[in-house]
């Protein structure tokens, strides 16, 4: 079965705090891609990052960083020095070609992040 | 570069009525997706088109939902007749192709309320 679990439903932090959003995935495929999307109140899903299953190198982009660990099937997302504009729902997603799924995205239920001033 | 366009942004209808949503993908993107996002959940794929052909519609409730992508560009998604449980945001996305490493770019969505 293919599944993405985001155990944290809601997180609330104060501005400038660091926050980590957890993502655990399940797949039988050896080749797969993991994504993070941001969904602000406007509703549009904004692509943040893509990571393929053969690249476990962590990535940093400004205040954002991602930790991919195949051993624990996790792809966690950390925001450093959070800002009010980071308030949104964040989705982790998995994409494989397992079972002829044609590379469709499988989303977790999302984590709602609220950053208070 | 223009993003994925969707209309209308909001729609309120009564149950058993019909509704249609429109999507215009990013120019040059061969693959188009329709997702349903129920409040509090992640998006769920309804149908995927590659050019004007259907690649995957396994999760589309075909007794009431239909979709088409004439000429391989714009697409419409129709619900007839609508049920209360169809209340959701309908998201359209497009990508260069159907391969798993291509990013999908999403439109703003259409929020449907069925009363």
Tell me what you see in this structure.
- The complex is a heterodimer of chains A (about 120) and B (about 120).
- Chain A is mainly beta.
- Helices cover about 0% and strands about 50% of the residues of chain A.
- The model of chain A has no long low-confidence stretch (mean pLDDT about 90).
- In chain A, strands 2, 5, 6, 10, 11 and 12 form a six-stranded mixed β-sheet that branches. In chain A, strands 3-9-8-7 form a four-stranded antiparallel β-sheet, with no helix packed on it.
- By secondary structure, chain B is mostly beta strands.
- Chain B has no helices and eleven strands.
- In chain B, the strands form two sheets. In chain B, strands 2, 4, 5, 6, 9, 10 and 11 form a seven-stranded mixed β-sheet that branches. A four-stranded antiparallel β-sheet of chain B has the order 1-3-8-7, with no helix packed on it.
- In chain B, a hairpin with a 6-residue loop joins strand 7 and strand 8.
- Chains A and B meet through strand 5, strand 6 and strand 10 of A and strand 5, strand 9 and strand 10 of B.
Task: Please write out the topology.
The complex is a heterodimer of chains A (117) and B (115).
Chain A: E1 3-5, E2 10-14, E3 19-21, E4 24-26, E5 33-39, E6 46-52, E7 59-61, E8 64-69, E9 74-79, E10 88-95, E11 105-107, E12 111-116
Parallel strand pairs in A: 2-12
Antiparallel strand pairs in A: 1-4, 3-9, 5-6, 5-10, 7-8, 8-9, 10-11, 10-12
Chain B: E1 5-7, E2 10-13, E3 19-24, E4 31-37, E5 44-50, E6 53-56, E7 65-68, E8 75-79, E9 88-95, E10 105-106, E11 110-114
Parallel strand pairs in B: 2-11
Antiparallel strand pairs in B: 1-3, 3-8, 4-5, 4-9, 5-6, 7-8, 9-10, 9-11
Spell out the key features of this protein.
heterodimer; A: 117 residues; mainly beta; 4-stranded antiparallel β-sheet; 51% strand; B: 115 residues; 7-stranded mixed β-sheet; 48% strand; globular
């Amino acid at each position: 079965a293919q599944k993405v679990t985001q155990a944290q439903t809601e997180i609330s932090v104060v501005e400038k705090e660091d926050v980590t959003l957890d993502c655990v995935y399940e797949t039988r495929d050896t080749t797969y891609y993991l994504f993070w999307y941001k969904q602000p109140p406007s509703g549009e899903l904004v692509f943040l990052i893509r990571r393929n299953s053969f690249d476990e190198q962590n990535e940093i982009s400004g205040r954002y960083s991602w930790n991919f660990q195949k051993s624990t099937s996790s792809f966690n997302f950390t925001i450093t020095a959070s800002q009010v504009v980071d308030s949104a729902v964040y989705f982790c997603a998995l994409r494989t070609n397992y079972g002829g799924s044609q590379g469709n995205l499988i989303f977790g239920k999302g984590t709602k992040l609220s950053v208070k001033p | 570069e223009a993003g994925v366009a969707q209309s209308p942004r909001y729609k309120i209808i009564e149950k058993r009525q019909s509704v249609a949503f429109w999507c215009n993908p990013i120019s040059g993107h061969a693959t188009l997706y329709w997702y349903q996002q129920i409040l509090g959940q992640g998006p769920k794929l309804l149908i995927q088109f590659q050019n004007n052909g259907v690649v995957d519609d396994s999760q589309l409730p075909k007794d009431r939902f239909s979709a088409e992508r004439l000429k391989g560009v714009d697409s419409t998604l129709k619900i007839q007749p609508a049920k209360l449980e169809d209340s959701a945001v309908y998201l359209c996305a497009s990508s260069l192709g159907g391969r798993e490493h291509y990013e999908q770019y999403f439109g703003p969505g259409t929020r449907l309320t069925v009363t």
